[in-house]
Amino acid sequence: MTKRIGFTIFAIMCISIGLYPLVYFLMERTFGLLGSKSDVVLSDVFWNIGFYTHILLGGLALLIGWMQFSKKLRAKNLKLHRAIGKVYTISVLFSGLASLYIAYFATGGIVPMLGFMGLGLVWLYSTTLGYMAIKKGQVNKHQKFMIYSYAACFAAVTLRIWLPLLTMAFQEFLIAYKIVAWLCWVPNIIVAYFVVKRLGLSNA
Ligand code: HEM
Predict the structure, then answer these.
(1) Domain locations in the chain?
(2) Statement: residue 1 has pLDDT above 90
């Protein structure tokens, strides 16, 4: 029962933040992060392609990825698990590469830039290894790396929990942003490490 409630809360968080990028298409071009960007960045074609590719496909990955951890769904419909997995992997590939590019222009300079680039690299690396493992039939290795991959993806959720708390604590957005670019994902990867260990997948 507790497990079920936990999974439901997890799913709700993933779905709501997964849908959040759509708000950028409903609001003015000054919404959210766009309000902090210079006219030079906002009019840069490559940055815009990178930004919208990143938020749309990142949103899609987050929206569908949580389902892959349902044992019931995997047992009931392996075909669906495979289809969602392919869409997730392709979305991560494009969103992750785009994130590395837009990270270069991150608000707040080198500290958030390196934080987001580190996250992007972990996301791309773990997803690629997870996908390659299942192509070779290595189920345990696949599970291990996909846990790391989704822990990285889940940074989109944890960032939006930490950021308002840090902004309140420091009374300054930029300090909070520099911290959150790291805090949104490093603890997630540590949690993933212990989940992998508990499942006995460490040496997979
Ligand atoms: C896991 C790897 C991810 C990395 C490395 C990453 C990186 C970034 C970077 C560098 C920015 C721009 C920051 C700036 O210019 O200051 C950004 C913004 C954004 N990202 Fe991601 N991101 C990731 C995952 C996701 C996911 C899964 C979503 C899905 C919701 C997402 C949604 C957004 C949105 C909506 C913004 C605009 C800022 C906002 O409104 O909060 N990102 N991301």
Answers:
(1) 2-198
(2) no
